[in-house]
Amino acid sequence: MKHTSILDPMSHTLFISDLHLCADRPHINQQFFDFLSRTAPQAEALYILGDLFEYWVGDDDLTDPLNAAVAAALRRLRDKSVALYLMHGNRDLLLGEEFTRRSRAEAIADPVLLELYGTRTLIMHGDTLCTDDVEYQKFRTYARNPENQAKFLAQPIAKRKEQILGLRADSESAKHGKTEQIMDVTPATMEQTLRDFGYPRLIHGHTHRPARHQHVVDGHRCERWVLNDWYERGGYLRCDASGCAAFML
Fold first, then answer.
1. What band does 35 get if pLDDT is binned at 50, 70 and 90?
2. Is the previous residue joined to 65 through a cis bond, with omega within 30 degrees of 0?
C-alpha cells in the first residue's frame, strides 16, 4: 500500500478515527456525511482507523437506517475514485464482509506500515499501545476470540444490542476508577512499537487525546499523531509530501 504521487503537490491522504457514530448524536452523523461529500473527495485515500460506529452488533444490522446510510455514503466516496480503507477498532470489531461489500471499503489489518509520500508511516487503532490498562487488554483478547464472536453473533440482534449496551455502561463506570495515565498509551510499549517497525512516523486513535508528539527512540526522532474523537466535533489528519496537519470541522 503506497502513496507516492510526488509529481502532484496536491495529492494527499486523510485519516480519521473514533467517530462513534450512533443515532444519539445526529449532528456528528451529519458532519460525517458532509465530510464525505465535501472534504474527502479531494483526497487520494481515506483511512478510517477504527471505531467508526459507537457499536456494531453484526452485519445483519445493516437494515438499521443509520448503518445503511453510512455504508451508502462510503460507497459514493469510493465511486469517486478515492481509495477507502477500514481498520477495526474496539467498538466495531464485528464489521464484516457484508459491510465492506456494501461500502466498497477495503478492510486492513492493525497495524499497517505505509510508504506515505516518501515517509514510512505506521497506522493503528491504538488500543494495543495501552498495555497498562490490564483489564481492557484482557477484554480485548476475549472479544477477538473467533469462538466468542461466533457465539455472540448466533444470538438475536435485540439480545446482542442489549449486551453491547450493558458493556458500554460497564466500560464507562470502569473508567471512573482508572487514572488518565492508565488509559493513555504506555510509553515503553509505544517506544518498542516504533523500534520494531524501524522508527516510522506513527498515526493512531483510540485514546481521544489529539496531539502531535515528538519522541526520540534510540537516537531516532519519531513523530506521533493522535487523532481526535468525534464525540463533540469532527476532525481529520491530512498528510501529503510536505508532512501532516490536523484540522477540525
1. very high
2. no
**Cβ neighbours, 10 Å, residue 142:** 10
Q: What are the domain boundaries of the chain?
A: 2-130+187-248
Contacts for 15 with CB less than 8 Å, ≥ 6 apart: 46, 47, 49, 123, 203, 225, 227, 236, 237, 239
Q: Which residue in the block uniquely carries the three cell numbers 475514485? A: 81
pTM of the complete model: 0.93
End-to-end distance of the chain based on CA atoms, in angstroms?
28
Q: Concatenate the DSSP letters of all residues of 192-211 into one string.
A: HHHHHTTS-EEEE-SS---E
Helices (H), 35-145: 65-79, 97-103, 134-143
Answer for the pair 90, 143: CB distance below 8 angstroms, yes or no: yes
Helix (H) or strand (E) holding 239: strand 235-240
Residue pair 104/78 in contact (Cβ under 8 Å)? The answer is yes
Task: Give the pLDDT confidence score for residue 175 in this predicted structure.
Answer: 64
CATH code assigned to 2-130+187-248? 3.60.21.10
Name residue 95's amino acid. Answer: L
Q: Would you say 139 and 104 are in contact if contact means Cβ atoms under 8 Å apart? A: no
Q: Provide Rg for the chain, Cα atoms.
A: 18
- What would the mean pLDDT of 179-205 be, rounded to a whole number? 92
Residues 237/15, Cβ–Cβ less than 8 Å: yes
Q: What is the pLDDT of residues 84-105, one digit of tens each?
A: 999 999 999 999 999 999 999 9
- CA count, 13 A, side-chain hemisphere, 87: 26
Residue 184 has a CB neighbour count (10 Å cut-off) of: 19
